[in-house]
Here is the input.
Amino acid sequence: MSNDKTSEETVKKKKGGKLKLVLFSLVLLGAGGGGTYAAFASGMLGAQGAKEEDRNPKLVLKGEEDPYPFVAEGGEKEAAPAIHGGGGGKYRTAYYNFSDEFTSNLANGTALIQVSLAASTHYDGRVMMWLNEHETALRSRILAELAATSEEDLASIRGKEELQKRLTKAINETLEEREGFGGVDSVYFRSFIVQ
Here is the structure.
């Protein structure tokens, strides 16, 4: 009789051991599948593209090297590092000079405006690259803004400053439409003639 009890207990233990093994395997399989799903969902494995924020230009501190230096057509990158003073803002400023002057009629009259422009950014060279790449679209938008300006608007310093703000906004809107990011901080007049 003791032999019968021992063999029954052995069979029950074996069945219980197999059941535990199957349950344990299912738990591991589920955890592994969930972990794999989480990795795909978070972008760790097989991501279709970088996160939106990873593609945007980053601010460049004074003294830091630009991770995406912009080199104009036919130009060469500077050999010596730039040295910035200790005053002003903590971010470096890079300037993009538009290749040609802008000439337009002004609103409400027969006057003409002719300006040379530059745009500044505190962001890395991708903004400069986009300014260069989309200069045709930017020129069109800038000319439209100039044509919507009256001669009276430009008679005062305040009027010229307002035009600079409008041009900055127009450039950023155009870049956002094409690249999803503006990044231009200000527009500057390199020359300014109203006739």
Residues 1-49 form one domain. The chain has two domains: 1-49, 52-194. The chain has five helices and four strands. The helical segments are 2-42, 52-55, 125-133, 135-147, 157-179.
